[in-house]
Amino acid sequence: MSVAQLAGGRVAAVVRKAATRDPLVIAAVVVVVGVAVMAVFGQALAPYDPDAIYVGPVSAPPSLAYPFGTDDLGRDILSRVLAGTAPSVIGPVIVVVASSLLGAALGITAAWFGGAVDGIASRVIELIFAIPGLVLAVLAVAMFGKGLLAPTLALAIAYVPIVARLIRAGARQELGKPYMAALHIQGVGSAAICFRHLVPALLPALFAQTTIGFGYAMLDLAAISFLGLGAQPPASDWGVMIAGGQPALIAGAPEQSMFPALFVVLTVLAVNVLGARVTTWAERGER
Amino acid sequence: MSEVVLELDRVSIATPAPAGGSGRTLVHDCTLQVHAGEALGLVGESGSGKTLSTRAVAGLLPEGFTVGGTIRIDGDDVSLLPPARLREVRARRLGMVFQTPRAHLNPFRTIGDFMTEALVSVAGERADAAARRAIDLLDEVGVPDPSRRMRQRPGDLSGGLLQRVMIAATLAMDPRILLADEITTALDVTTQEEVMAVIADLRRHRELAMLFITHDLPLAGAVCDRVVVMNQGRTVETLPAGSMRAEARDAYTIRLLSASLPAAEAGAGTVASDAVAGVLAQVAPAPILRVDGLRKVFRVPAATGFGHDEFVAVDDVGFELPQGGSLGIVGESGSGKSTTARIVCGLETADAGTVTVKGEDWTRPARGARGRRRRARIAQMVFQDPYQSLDPRQTVRECLTEAVALHRPKASRPEVTARVDELLANVALDATLADRHPRALSGGQRQRVTIARSLAADPEILVLDEAVSALDVTTQVEVLTLLDGIRRSTGVALLMISHDLNTVRRLCDEVVVMRSGGIVEHGPIADVLDRPAADYTKMLLDSIPREGWVPRRRRPARTGALPSVATSATPVPRGGTP
Amino acid sequence: MNAGVVRTLAGKLGELALTLFLASVVIFSAVLLTPGDPVAALAGGIRPTPELIEAIRAQHHLDDPVWQQYLHWVGGVLTGDLGTSFVYKTDVAALIAPRIGVTVLLVLYTAVLIAIFGIGSGVVAATRGPRADRAVLIGTSIGMAMPTFVVAILLIWVFARVLGWFPVYGAGEGFLDSLYHLTLPAISLAVLYIAFFSRITRGAVVGQLHAEHVDTARVRGIPRSQIFRRHVFLNASPQILAVSGVTVAGLFATSAIAEQAFGIGGLGSLLTEAAARKDLPVVQVISLLLVVVFVVLNAVADIAIAVIDPDSAKPRRNA
């Protein structure tokens, strides 16, 4: 049996075990993978041109030809949801990756050096924390104009303190344990202590925070588009679509808002479920 | 014989059963009787089931645990009582005191609230009457200034005082029996004596029965009438406290007895290290470690709420450790013994004084990893908590490989592996354990790993900071024997920090007794422990439980909590090259 | 009041002042960081005439050094002179004043809903057995993925089209009518936070249920309800309070979404509109206001915690 076969068999076994024990996680994985596929191939999968108007009737309910129905300009909602996946997902990914890296670096630096460095870092953390993420994003829009780039970067900064606080507290706790003192006495280099021992200890917490952060970032960015400050119509961003569907909603055609809303909720739900479960596994492994 | 106030008859306890299966049985057979006014000791090591059995009596088992057999409180079978009645029976007839008073008192509520709560809500007394009674009870257990204490919160009181508060509160309901679960384990030995003296007084005056749960066989023997020994979920033997040694038949009991030898007889068990020391003294008179005028001051938040107070942790401490010698530093919590050890190993910086190792100045911590590595090849440290001393993500082999590779950078992989195997053999650790993570090892095995890791650098000094305190007594003896063997085969000098005079006696040639940061007495082990000069040393020795020991109240209690300078919570100082 | 509480109060006041100062510097510097001429930034989305340019330069003291500009701005804000919006061609104070009331009412309404349903369901999950726990867990999992705008459109659809019990547009007049109008907006704002508070409360309560001092109370025969009130919930409350300040302050920002969805003319919708029209003076003042709200509410929460738990006020060494 080759190594690949062995690994393949093991993966299959794990999947089988997980599927029987934890159908919720499997469902979450399916959603996350599905959304990822939509983000990459959405444009290609779309049955119609997402921006073309009057490809069908106006505000039609779902049918075989238009599975999600059409909007008030006769655009195909499925095509627009598919095309809107990438812009709706990339922003949150940038936010969590940037804020996790920055926050972890800041938190570890503060805990590692302590004293004045910790004091300054903590003050920076408090300061950013005091400005709500949405406010920072709106301020960015007022400065740089409408669009998703400025709010995305603003949120990336706004999310730093949450990660930094968590990592700082975790790192302080870890550094206080005798095994860190033992490594120090042994003469293990600082970089090795940091990257071989401290960082792995913090990864489960960081991962959990990253998944939670992804959900919040997605909601915040969609909210900014919903407010009309992010992606601009006729773009097929999910938040824009939800906002744009409001008149149709009151007129009795909920599809235009509901389908993108459903995808926002499903994506966030799936990522949250996955994050929570992986955290539990990691914690169990620790004990 | 008089009536039975508490009876456990073939009690078994099992964990919650998973769907379709059955739970794991943790206690198989616990059988014991406590008569009115009697003190029964329940002794066993961790995992023996003694605490679980007691919690079953008190109704404190975790949800879903099942109890078999019969528990009778004052003749009432608890399984037959309706829940409300059972709650009342327990509230009125049992008094329970726990190991960690600080955790077992609500930190947000005042002592007065704690003292009167049951009186008001269970016994239905009026608040003012309850308060008067509470003050009387606090006075009875020797809490000074009880009416002021009533307004304080647990955070303002020391551990020994809190334990008295716990005891006083249980007395409020006039119980028939006191369940005392390791009530002095977290206390200093002199505080332990105080608390035991209080309990002895109470039992005399109130004819209170007691189930005294402890891991400390000599203590149980000294304060109880009979002792029940528990091992792996079974009560194996019941012995009269006065003649345990003579009457013990069970192999485990005998092993436990020999492991927890009372102080006066332990000297015989010492390996003939005096000879070793003597020889070394002739060959190399120069000390390998010399500490002079050491001083360390911590700044702690002031009690008034503003600014800082200075807390002198170490004050003018000096001693020498001969090459290949073994020096014990003993003292109670707050004596500065651990801080001294941490300064020697570069984990703290002294405010004054010098540390000299092999003629080199070690007063300031080494700068940079290279400097630390160089010192690591001379001095190593073993900590109290073996689990926290190991990276939980590394296997034993990974941990040791890291240490070996660090100190032998030029060694090839097979050489490193061979050295790791050798280290495992040195600490008598089975090679099959090498691929386990720390969580899959026992406490003793974990401590062997940390010792092996410290030996990877072939050090000349091993600093042992309460290295066996967290272990069961039979395991303690194994680890101490191992350390003694290592000392004799490698000639490593030992600097042993301990609160336990027995431990120090087993391993050390010389001893330093510390109190409140300063040295009270210093000399060869036999001189200091058998013919102590300082009053404090005498008191320490007197407060060690042994056969025929009568606990006495001897000094005014330390009323305030110690300033919190938990050194283990301090991050490792650094700032070296990243 | 004991020393710990006084100490917290004093320490908090200092931190509060420093954070406010730093935040005001950051918000002020938005003008400098905006690409292009500061005059254009302050004029917002309109093309300034030469007279307007002159007016802006004079009002914002753009010919002075930067630190003097900052002092003028902060001094103005402190004395109630919030500046002028050139987009709306009116005082910023006049813009903000009539809109604050409805937003405050909406936020308070939401906070009450969160307190009742969030803390309530968390307690239920922690104390009413595994089945209730599971049910609340599922509910909160969905709730955590339900942003304000999604709840809002669901409610608008259900109530505008199907039920019609609550109005879906406008803020109403008078207190009771306002409450009536703000019900759906408050629910839409609350859902996510209810789920969040439920989780926090459950975790805190479960942690305390297993606390050792609760064992002591149980063995002493204290009645269950009393144990819960005096020893479990009381001790869990600092953890809940710790997120309360942040949450209520955050609501002032997120209320923008509910205001937008339900057509309410509050502070949030003004902020959104001003940002859309690049009206920096308005956005700056509202941002600063929200930061003040955040800092004050957080300080209040910290003091409340210090009253319950005096030890929280004691800084540890090296902390």
TrEMBL record, chain A:
Domain of life: Bacteria
Alphabetized CDD domains for the sequence: TM_PBP2
Membrane topology recorded in Swiss-Prot or TrEMBL: Multi-pass membrane protein
UniProt keywords, alphabetically: Cell membrane, Membrane, Transmembrane, Transmembrane helix, Transport
SUPFAM superfamilies per the UniProt record, alphabetical: MetI-like (SSF161098)
Localization annotation: Cell membrane
Taxonomic lineage from the root: Bacteria, Bacillati, Actinomycetota, Actinomycetes, Micrococcales
Protein name (record): Dipeptide ABC transporter permease DppC
Main localization, broad class: membrane
UniProt family annotation: Belongs to the binding-protein-dependent transport system permease family.
Segments traversing the membrane: 24-46, 89-112, 124-142, 148-167, 205-228, 259-278
Pfam family, one: BPD_transp_1
Entry-linked InterPro entries: BP-dependent_transpt_permease, MetI-like, MetI-like_sf
UniProt domain ABC transmembrane type-1: residue ranges: 89-275
Automatic annotation (TrEMBL), chain B:
Pfam families on file: ABC_tran (PF00005), oligo_HPY (PF08352)
Entries under SMART domains matching the protein: AAA
Superkingdom per UniProt: Bacteria
Keyword Nucleotide-binding carried by entry: yes
Chain residue ranges for the region called Disordered: 552-578
Leader peptide range in chain numbering: none
This protein's record includes keyword Hydrolase: no
Limits of the ABC transporter domain: 6-257, 289-541
GO molecular function, one term: ATP binding
Record keywords, A-Z: ATP-binding, Nucleotide-binding, Transport
PANTHER family registered for this protein in UniProt: D,D-DIPEPTIDE TRANSPORT ATP-BINDING PROTEIN DDPF-RELATED, TRANSPORT ATP-BINDING PROTEIN
Protein name: ABC transporter ATP-binding protein
Organism: Agromyces allii
UniProtKB/TrEMBL annotation, chain C:
InterPro entries (alphabetical): BPD_transp_1_N, MetI-like, MetI-like_sf
PROSITE patterns on file: ABC_TM1 (PS50928)
Localization per record: Cell membrane
Transmembrane segments: 12-33, 100-124, 136-159, 179-197, 240-262, 282-308
Any matching Pfam family: BPD_transp_1_N
Top-level taxon of the source organism: Bacteria
Keywords of this entry: Cell membrane, Membrane, Transmembrane, Transmembrane helix, Transport
Family: Belongs to the binding-protein-dependent transport system permease family.
Protein name as annotated: ABC transporter permease
Organism of provenance: Agromyces allii
Phylogenetic placement of the source organism: Bacteria, Bacillati, Actinomycetota, Actinomycetes, Micrococcales
